[in-house]
């Protein structure tokens, strides 16, 4: 299958499937780029971004296989506070097109679920060149600002580049 033909769906994490989230493995050199599975769920549980944010953890599934996870933290009453907090594809599944397909589904989910959304944001570590390439190719641009927690660059998707995901 061509990378561009990959299709994935997002499954909300619940008691029936959270073990699959916990079993996700990254490459050792990538662990600093993303919050590990248990922590990503804990961030959602404690509503780390604030009570006004909806924190949603999702598994990324291709057919019967869970290939990764994505968590979002969004303030439905804001224009710009829509964050992809974490996204990862399991080490053995990387490079097959799942990451791009998952980003498209996450962006579609955000604009459909939150009608007031005018921008989606994320943080990408300076040394995470593969992820940055993916985000820029989808239309994200560096904001010039850095994340309070990690001091790493923030990226934003807005305007016509975001509108594409509403179609
Ligand atoms: C970043 C990540 C989500 C990409 O997922 P993936 O399934 O490997 O990516 P894809 O196969 O869909 O490739 C998408 C794009 O990513 C970039 N990319 C992915 N692997 C790459 C590699 N080995 N070398 C260069 N670019 C690469 C390319 O821009 C690629 O574009 P293409 O579709 O034109 O080839 C995945 O590598 C990952 O989970 N990394 C570790 C965790 C992480 O860094 N998360 C992001 C935190 S900000």
Detail the topology: elements first, then pairings:
Layout: E1 9-12, H1 18-22, H2 37-45, E2 54-62, E3 65-74, E4 82-89, H3 98-113, E5 119-123, H4 129-137, E6 141-146, E7 153-158, H5 159-163
Antiparallel strand pairs: 1-2, 2-3, 3-4, 5-7, 6-7
The chain binds coenzyme A.
What features would you describe in this structure?
The protein is an alpha+beta fold. It has a single domain (3-119), classed as Gcn5-related N-acetyltransferase (GNAT) (Aminopeptidase, 3-Layer(aba) Sandwich). It is 26% helix and 29% strand. The protein contains 5 helices and 7 strands; from the N terminus they run βααβββαβαββα. It has helices at 18-22, 37-45, 98-113, 129-137, 159-163; strands spanning 9-12, 54-62, 65-74, 82-89, 119-123, 141-146, 153-158. The chain has a 4-stranded antiparallel sheet. The protein has a 3-stranded antiparallel sheet with strand order 5-7-6. The mean pLDDT is 96. The structure holds coenzyme A. Residues 3, 26, 30, 33-34, 87-89, 94-100, 124, 128, 130-131, 133-134, 137 line the site of coenzyme A. Coenzyme A binds next to strand 4, helix 3 and helix 4.
